[in-house]
Amino acid sequence: MVTFVGLIASILTASGLVPQVVKGFIRKKVEDVSMLFIVIGGVGTFLWFVYGILIMNGVIIFANSINATCYALMFLQKGIYKERVMECQKTT
């Protein structure tokens, strides 16, 4: 039962970040997402991932690997789409 609750919690937590990542890919704009949010959330998630490895807890590892992937994608989007905006501004 404890593992089941952990799995449900991890799925819900991870699914909260997925729409933001998808929205960024569709709109090709992420300026409304704070870089501070991405960095703090990403570092915190990475530390939870490491903690899961240290205590050998598969639920924590699973949940935070998904979350870390979402934060990494948001970080990449910030860099990629910022460059695209700057290139468009240079040509006009």
Structure description:
This protein is an all-alpha fold and 92 residues long. The chain has one domain: Monooxygenase. The chain is 87% helix and 0% strand. It has three helices and no strands. Helix 1 packs parallel to helix 3 and helix 2 runs antiparallel to helix 3. The longest helix is centred in the C-terminal third of the chain and has 34 residues. The radius of gyration is 16 Å and the shape is elongated. The termini are far apart.
CATH topology: Monooxygenase
> How many domains comprise the coordinates?
1
Low-confidence stretches: none
Rg estimate, integer Å: 16 Å
Biggest sheet statistics: none
Count of strand segments: 0
Q: Roughly how much helix do the residues carry, as a percent range?
A: over 70%
Overall SS class: mainly alpha
- CATH architecture title: Up-down Bundle
- Kindly state the mean pLDDT as a whole number? 87
Principal-axis shape equals: elongated
CATH class identity? Mainly Alpha
In terms of DSSP E residues, the strand content is under 5%
> Oligomerization state of this entry?
single chain
State the order of secondary-structure elements, H for helix, E for strand: HHH
Task: Give a brief outline of the structure.
With 92 residues, the chain is mainly alpha-helical.
